[in-house]
Amino acid sequence: MTVEEKVGQTIQADIGAITPDQLLHYPLGSILAGGNSSPGGDERASPQAWLDLARAFRAAAAARPGARVPLIYGIDAVHGHNNVVGATIFPHNIGLGATRDPDLIRRIGEATAMEVAVTGADWTFGPTLAVPRDDRWGRAYEGYAEDPEVQRMFAGPMTFGLQGALVAGAPLAEGHIAGSAKHFLADGGTLNGVDQGDFAGSEQSLIDIHAGGYVQAIDAGVLSVMASFSSWNGLKLSANETLLTDVLRGPLGFRGFVVSDWNAHGQIPGCSNASCPLALNAGIDMLMAPDSWQPLYESTVAEVRSGEIPMTRLDEAVRRILRVKVKTGLFADRRAVEGDFSQLASPAHRALAREAVRKSLVLLKNEGGVLPIRSGARVLVAGSADDIGQAAGGWTLTWQGTGNTNADFPHGDSIWNGIDEAVSAGGGVATLSPDGTFTDRPDVAIIVFGETPYAEFQGDVETLDYLPTDPLETLRRLKAAGIPTVSVFLSGRPMWTNPEINASDAFVAAWLPGSEGAGVADVLIGDGDGRPRSDFSGVLSFSWPRDATGTPLNRGEPGYDPQFAYGYGLSYARGGAVPALSEESGISGVTTNVDRYLVDGRVADPWAMVLTDPDGESRPGAAKTGASPGGAVTVSPVDDLAQETGRQFAFDGSGPGSVRITGDPVNLSRQANGELTLSFRYRVDAAPTAATILSVGQGGVDIGEILKAAPADQWRTLRVRLSCFQTAGSDVEQVGTPFALSTDGRLTISLSEIRLASHENDSVCPGQ
After folding, report:
1. Which residue in 43, 76, 146, 456 is the catalytic one?
2. pLDDT tens figures, 267-277
3. Contact present, 553 and 568 (Cβ < 8 Å)
4. Residue 456 annotated to the active site
5. What pTM did the predictor assign?
6. Active site residue: 134, 198, 261, 355, which one?
């Protein structure tokens, strides 16, 4: 192989940033479909479109002159083949951890592998073996448990399910795909649960806690390992030669290849997305460079030729990748199951997912035996029971899992569907009323509520307080009317829900059950005499908090004092009474945040985004896309420091438009006196055609000339001193709009990291 061909094997591009035609010229070894990438940018593309795209990339790679090595195609199938409409969506790992059922995990791995294989992909980025130690982490639901015993129990079976048993001299069997144990190492142990943060801990804790599952996955033959974004004692894992080479290749005995995470190499000091010899030299074999693949390929070729990356190291990485490609069957073109779309959400796979839902439910309370519900009863169903998207959570069709409707799950059943079917079959009547109102008095009410979808750092929270008040008001209203109440709580982590538990006669932790919500009814709804059809068997794999502070709560740690302990779980055979719980949260009821507005890709609480034009205003809320009422301003997500950490705003010039961050007024006078600045990153995508006013409160400055002078398509940082807005004719003692951008003309601008920051030498005061 030439140097160029070898380097190509070490680079992975995202399908959203490369075309099949480019593989005719660049010898890349891998592509991936990231969380928001899809055929032609259509997140609802058909299975055939997914397969056609995979075949187009493979054909182009094979047609390149001199091509000898096939492409490997990876995808995030983390709870089923969750990228494809119509696939089976299994419960997220936090729910599976509650089952304590290794055989179930193996069968889910087999079903997932088959559904991925029929659409043309070869490799999934799983199993996730993180051991989440702080439930405030936005990826807590991707972990099986807070205790590594469950990861050790499941890692082997999931690997066997995905890959099948490895047979010497033979490729993976048809319908199996390569796996990737992730994220190596200690991604679940970062300080304060900050995603991509730092694990400040000992080597012994790495061994005792965070290595949980990796030994078993490697022993089961997992073909790849993904390195973590995070750090260990300040050193990025993607540059940690001790762990990636000495440990992983030494005592752990791993023989596959190591892939980095999404542009994680660019976070290493001394590196950028376009160049990072440090990562390869430390032991990364394949660099996930979704949108930076081309400059990274070119720089890596140059670094190999200069000797900065030794040829021996490059050859080692390529040998590992080739070994996996041979084992995966890519050279043998092992694709007999491709196109058999009957495997997607097949009856067997749906039944398996429904079984997983049943086994994952954890009963926290069952006062007075309100459960199981007699199938002939009059049942009121309130809340979000008919929302499969909320039940599926993040990593579902899109990265964040937002914007999905039941139509996106053509083979799925919502929790409401299952309840309605079970009650109707027993001669009862179920009524869906999201707000909990009713005309005919019910015998019992089921209220389904919980977290809305999120993924990765978007899900990081400061406390575990469940903040929405509507479900609690509904529960209390029904309870005051003497109606027995059953709560079904959807969440990606344990949360402080003591008021909701107190207002419920029964409380079920349902986690994120996926597309087969009818499994909930299998356990809640009994027969005509009220006898159980299925009993609760799930037990907590994460300790349930006594207060809302979010202080790490893990069994075996000093001061361990949970509301419900690790391993807790009631059943019909084991009673269900729970004493009244304290409703003192331990935290202030008001979120304090005066200095962060758009951070890590989301509008920070308690602020909200407002888009305005002459027709009025609109609030996108948690949605990442939106438009002002008259369409003068639109917003959509863009990548900046990480995936989807920015927002692009397009002003069409049809009339005055603005984007504002608003909330209850705060006093910024001390910040202004200290010469703090309003700081934000920006990229001018289409220069302004009119004055562009940046405002804090009632004071504004024109930054139009700054934007016109900025190089197009380059991210830059602008810092404007708060005192500038005072001299513009306004004080900053009562600021309800700490950021606003408005113009009457055309402008397309991408923004991220809008916050208050210290005064730097590059801060400005436009107009002065």
Report:
1. 456
2. 999 999 999 99
3. no
4. yes
5. 0.84
6. 261
